[in-house]
Specification:
The complex is a heterodimer. By secondary structure, chain A is mostly beta strands. Chain A contains no helices and 29 strands. Helix content of chain A is about 0%, strand content about 60%. By secondary structure, chain B is of the alpha+beta class. The chains are: A mainly beta, B alpha+beta.
């Protein structure tokens, strides 16, 4: 069994990228005065009717927007925060009418569930967890995983929600002896969970038993990797990582995403593909999202770049608009749209 | 491209690692 070694994704020049592959279909202006931090799309049900809604997060305000005709949006709920600012939205797959948010300054201090009272339609927020939280991820099957505490008392906890969004049960996973940076689901394997660690390891848990199955060391060339997508095929584990610390290498350009393959039985692994910036583009990974076989990233240059992970190269580059750098980008979970946000609260919705 | 040996592969790696971890 041998596998192709790291191949550098093609590096087309900017001019050869198809700018028409992104079509602006709607714009959403958040009038809140504070800095815009995140966006997400989710299903929300009102009066027995489920709609694909958009959630926007500013530092102290999270809003839910429902679609009107002709790609206009109406704000229907707003949750306010007074003491701790919002850091990120944490979507929980398979849950309707509930979204989680992580709050904190530099590190996450709280995770809260945002929902609405079924009696009077008023906005409600429930504190799910507080403390020194290092990483959080919403999982399929209405679950939320988080790691908290310091190295000697690190806790990895899975919370399962009931259909109505209320927290139902809690379970703990065996902690690795190193700080967890990010979590990642393994597509199609509901009982498997991955974590990346500060020591450049990828760990695997069995979520049913809580067992820590394996710790796999990956190439030290890229530190602080974020796990965006993982799937198992033919006994091998394929993982898409992003690298915010990757340095530009003359021959390769700037690697933003990487596909690695791991044999979980032996922990041996190798890079399969590096997804680099096209020639003429500079910058490192700032923030990004992967859905199906498409990866999108905001670069430190303020530009958004998109890769087709199967084709192996960058397919679109979206420069800053109105002289405003992009600050975050998400694939919509409800359709094939790209949600791109700027710090001033403007959200642009593109069809890709 | 050159090959890289990742060692013996098992299609049931998740079940096997779970059994090993239970021992």
């Amino acid at each position: 069994h041998s596998i192709e070694q790291t191949k550098v994704a093609d590096l087309p020049t900017c001019d050869s990228l198809n700018p028409g592959s992104l079509q602006l279909i709607s714009k959403l202006k958040n009038p809140s005065g504070s800095c815009s931090v995140d966006v997400s799309a989710m299903w929300w049900e009102r009066a027995g009717f489920k709609e694909p809604c958009i959630i926007t997060a500013c530092e102290y305000v999270v809003s839910l927007w429902r679609p009107l005709d002709t790609w206009q949006w109406e704000k229907i709920y707003t949750w306010h925060f007074t003491e701790v600012p919002v850091l990120q939205i944490v979507p929980v797959p398979d849950v309707c009418n509930l979204v989680c948010v992580a709050l904190g300054s530099l590190e996450i201090r709280e995770i809260r569930a945002l929902l609405c009272s079924s009696e009077d339609e008023s906005e409600k927020q429930v504190l799910l967890k507080s403390g020194n939280i290092k990483a959080v991820l919403g999982l399929t099957g209405r679950r939320l995983v988080s790691s908290s505490g310091t190295l000697c008392d690190q806790q990895v906890e899975i919370m399962t929600f009931a259909e109505d969004g209320r927290s139902k049960e809690k379970q703990f996973l065996m902690p690795p002896e190193e700080t967890i940076l990010t979590f990642g689901e393994v597509q199609g394997m509901q009982e498997a969970l991955l974590g990346t660690t500060i020591m450049n390891n990828i760990v695997i848990w069995n979520l049913k038993t809580g067992q820590l199955l394996k710790k796999m060391h990956i190439d030290d060339s890229y530190q602080a990797s974020v796990c965006h997508k993982a799937y198992s095929e033919m006994g091998l584990l394929f993982v898409v990582l992003s690298h915010s610390c990757a340095k530009e290498r003359e021959a390769l350009g700037s690697p933003v995403f990487q596909l690695i393959v791991i044999n979980p039985k032996t922990t041996l692994n190798v890079g399969v593909m590096l997804y680099c910036l096209p020639q003429g583009q500079a910058g490192r990974f700032l923030e990004g999202d992967v859905k199906d076989h498409f990866a999108a990233a905001v670069l430190t240059s303020g530009t958004i770049a998109i890769w087709d992970l199967l084709l192996g190269h960058c397919t679109a580059v979206l420069p800053p608009i109105s002289d405003q750098n992009w600050s975050f980008v998400k694939w919509s979970g409800t359709d094939s749209h790209l949600l791109a946000g700027q710090k001033d609260g403007n959200i642009f919705i593109y069809r890709y | 491209c050159s090959g890289a040996d990742l060692g013996p592969i098992s299609l049931n790696w998740f079940e096997e690692l779970s059994s090993e971890a239970s021992l």
